[in-house]
Amino acid sequence: MVDGTPSGAPGPSPSPSASRGPTDAAPPPKWPPDPSPQPAAPALHNATAAEIAAAKADNDKGVVHGSESKGKTDRTMDQLLPEKPVIKDGKAQLGNLTVEADKYPQFREAMMHESKNPEMNALVERLEKGPYKTNVTTNEVSNNEMEPQMNGNAEVHWDPKHMHVASNDAKRSPATRLAHELDHADEWTHNPQRLITNANTPDDKFSNLEEKRVITGSERRNVKAIGEGQREDHSAGKGEFNSKGVTSAVPVLHQTRGGVTTELADGYNQTGKISVDGDNIKQDIGRGQSVNYPRAEFEGLVGKNAVDQAVAGGKPVTVAVQGGEFKMQEPRAVAQEVQHSGR
User: Fold this and answer.
1) In the chain, what is the greatest distance between 2 CA atoms, to the nearest angstrom?
2) DSSP 327-343
3) pTM
4) Could you give the CA distance from residue 250 to residue 227 in angstroms, rounded to a whole number?
5) Domain locations in the chain as residue ranges
6) pLDDT tens for each residue of 215-273
């Protein structure tokens, strides 16, 4: 499984009709195209030691095969992904690309956003016209992966609800995570043997060369175009968090007080001792009152070691929200506050 369009040139233009004069324009081609007949499964083999060694040698030279230019298209994303696609069997039918019908608006919003990098248009076109099928299903359990099928098809699993914060603090929206998986699907559809070889060639930073191909290729160009962070490895990083939207790289942070849970915005701050209370980080704020922060959110952004040290220290800390992240710091002493305000 890969954490991840069929390529194909447009078909020939329709032959002129006998009833149409030589100066009459040919009717525009149908779009999206009808699904292509399913070809036989590609002949594949497990990556050999020689193939893996060759891929590693190329990587040592700075080359990861698969990152080559794959051509362009004149079609825009709104042409490739119509607002009202054909729906059949509960799926939006886009040639050989299918998407759960009820999640199609989110899929379309995500890819319209990613199309600020024009190569995404060509990638979607290749998926729609490719020889094998790519099916997109959604979930809300942070399952983002491309699952290759031995008949040549690709299953893309996408969570449109959760964003990712990398180990270097780079934030990636659900839309960017979808584009990543579609690139894996494109490779499987068009270059399955190369994907097998790259996926079986380890890489210290990016797990394997297939992940490196996507992360250092289309993903970097995507995040640059849309203004998101550029990660430097393929790891769990700081974790996955509810996003403010499909195209948002800002996590939704929460606080519960008196049984009421609210979303926190930048500028929030609260001072008091903290402790670990089951699935929450509890902060005593005086007068017998306390607030709770979801432990996974808090430890993911602040760091478990920092939380453990603050709990063991037993001293008040200031919890703040800055730049869409929890921050924790020692409160300023009164003397410092007076000196600061006098400047």
Assistant:
1) 93
2) EEEPPPPHHHHHHHHT-
3) 0.85
4) 12
5) 49-242, 253-341
6) 999 999 999 999 999 999 999 999 999 999 999 999 999 999 999 999 999 999 999 99
